[in-house]
Design a protein that fits this description.
Length: about 160
Amino acid sequence: MKKKYKDLPLRSGVGIVVLNKKNQVFLAKRIDNPKKFWQMPQGGIDNGEEFYEAAIRELEEETSIKTVSLIKEIDGLTTYLLPNHLIGIIWKGKYKGQKQKWFIVRFDGEEKEININTKHPEFLDWKWVNIDNLTDEVVEFKVHVYKQIQKELYKII
């Protein structure tokens, strides 16, 4: 029997705000979304994994970035729900959205370290954007999450 949308759980995940030396934010364009939506690195948590450990693993898996230092763990969790047309498509229909723990890190490496052509690529392209423009090209159901992160960034920059 198929679960109803409201009965589906939220997936536990992490998100990583990567700042460069100019306090610009790393954004990448997803392979599986043909529109012009960009996002920060994020992903799920493996069994037994701590939030920060998962964030660093996801960052490396998606971008090859290793050279970072932790600036801040954002308090609490953020949540987003998938729109109806994506239920049953994303995450094999197991979840209705995601609850995420976010971290802000400083990229201390050279740009040549960034490589989105990973073993299992998720992104087509990447760029640095100013904090003011963080929400300009985000998929609609995540805009509130990015606005919250934007407020956190303004507190520390």
